[in-house]
Amino acid sequence: MVTTPSRKVRSKSRAGRCLLPALSVLLLVPLAWACSPGPSATPAPMVSPSPPRPTMAPQHGWELPAGQVLFIDRRVHLEGACIEGDCQPGPMIDFPTYRFDPETGILNSWLPVDLGDDLQMLYGNGTSLAGLAGGGAASGLTEIYAIPAKVEGVRIVQVDGDGTAYLESGGELLVLAPGQAWTNTTEDVEEQEDGKVRLTSTEQIVNHGILDTDKIVFPAP
Questions:
Q1: pTM attached to this predicted model
Q2: Rounded to an integer, what distance in angstroms lies between the CA atom of residue 189 and that of residue 197?
Q3: 168-174: long-range pairs with CB below 8 Å, 24+
Q4: Which residues contact 95 (CB under 8 A, 6 or more apart)?
Q5: HEC readout, the chain
Q6: Can you give the pLDDT at residue 61?
Q7: Structure confidence at residue 134 as a pLDDT band (50, 70, 90)
Q8: Residue 59: how many CA atoms within 13 Å on its side-chain side?
Q9: pLDDT for 10 beyond 70
Q10: pLDDT at residue 63 in the model
Q11: Are 61 and 189 in contact, with CB atoms under 8 Å apart?
Q12: Which of 193, 191, 169 is nearest to 181 (CA)?
């Protein structure tokens, strides 16, 4: 009869010994948490300023010495092919007025050119036809004395001092450094009375860079 109660007492004492450390831990954890320093503030990351957005303002101006001009050349080639029925050919055109040799840098014009001191650019524009679109070629030079300007649907927005040209064609902004070219090809179908012709148009704009006026050859007026 004595053994059983003593066994129970030892059980209670063992439980008490286990409970005290557990209570101590539970009491110390909030205290330690309260006394511990709060989380250190994380410094905000350094943010580099965004690069400036490109603008249409020239960075170093459009100033060429006397005796130099920029030459931009635009060519459109139209070719036609019959895709249905009995197709009729297009018109014949003629009268090219200039030719440029990129190897020598010489621009030959068969018409007089005004090379006054205020001339800034020569803009060439040419069209050629082939196949059922027609035949032949025609071209002409336009003297430009002030920029911005608009010639044959192409707007010349600005020109930098190194000859880089900013152009707008068909709603698209083109940036052409000297020696660079832009090409665009489109197709259309023309319905004729007895057939259909597929027309392929290839447009190319080339920035031939800055030319010395002594390389522009033309007949005396």
A1: 0.71
A2: 6
A3: 169/203, 169/205, 174/205
A4: 138, 139
A5: CCHHHHHHHHHHHHHHHHHHHHHHHHHHHHHHHHHCCCCCCCCCCCCCCCCCCCCCCCCCCCCCCCCEEEEEEEEEEEEEEEEEECCCCCCEECCCCEEEECCCCEEEECCCCCCCCCCCEEEEEEEEEEECCCEEEEEEEEEECCCCEEECCEEEEEECCCCCEEEEECCEEEEECCCCEEEEEEEEEEECCCEEEEEEEEEEEEEEEEEEHHHEECCCC
A6: 54
A7: very high
A8: 9
A9: no
A10: 67
A11: no
A12: 169
34-59 confidence digits (pLDDT tens): 444 444 444 444 434 443 333 444 44
The whole-angstrom separation of Cα 58 and Cα 64 is 14
Angle, vertex CA 86, rays to CA 82 and CA 92, nearest 5: 65
Is the CB of residue 199 less than 8 Å from the CB of residue 190? yes
Q: What is the pLDDT of residues 140-177, one digit of tens each?
A: 999 999 999 999 889 999 999 899 999 999 889 999 99
Mean of all residue pLDDT scores within the chain? 80
